[in-house]
Design goal:
Elements lengths: L3 E4 L2 E4 L4 E7 L5 E7 L6 E7 L4 E4 L7 E5 L5 E6 L8 E8 L4 H4 L8 E2 L3 E6 L1
Parallel strand pairs: 2-11
Antiparallel strand pairs: 1-3, 3-8, 4-5, 4-9, 5-6, 7-8, 9-10, 9-11
């Protein structure tokens, strides 16, 4: 079991920055950030598989969001810069047991553990 707790959400104006944190009870092979806007399906934002040392980013956030984690791999971060109103959503961190393609394709079913979510609101 992996318990995940997100923090750091809030309200900012467009162009601003926020850093989300996710405390994990232990590390996992695959860690990711997802988001869900009102009335929309949940989408993958960024994912990292330890075995490949490669970070996947959704096209919509590439160049603006940065995924990182501490050396113990028990705290994840999502640095979000140049935020846009369309980034408004509830953000979730998630962990999966499988790596590689299962991690990077960012299907909900491939992630077994989820945090409770933190709200990010970006105003224009």
């Amino acid at each position: 079991q992996v318990q995940l707790v997100e923090s750091g959400g809030g309200s900012v104006q467009a162009g601003g920055s926020l850093r989300l944190s996710c405390a994990a009870s232990r590390g996992a092979n695959c860690m990711g950030w997802f988001r869900q806007a009102p009335g929309k399906e949940r989408e993958g934002v960024a994912a990292f598989f330890d075995g490949a040392s490669y970070t996947y980013y959704a096209d919509s956030v590439k160049g603006r969001f940065t995924f990182s984690q501490d050396n113990a791999k028990t705290t994840l971060y999502l640095q979000m810069d140049n935020l846009k109103p369309e980034d408004t959503a509830t953000y979730y961190c998630a962990a999966g047991r499988r790596g590689g393609a299962y991690c990077y394709r960012m299907n909900d079913d491939d992630y077994q553990y989820w945090g409770q979510g933190t709200q990010v609101t970006v105003s224009s």
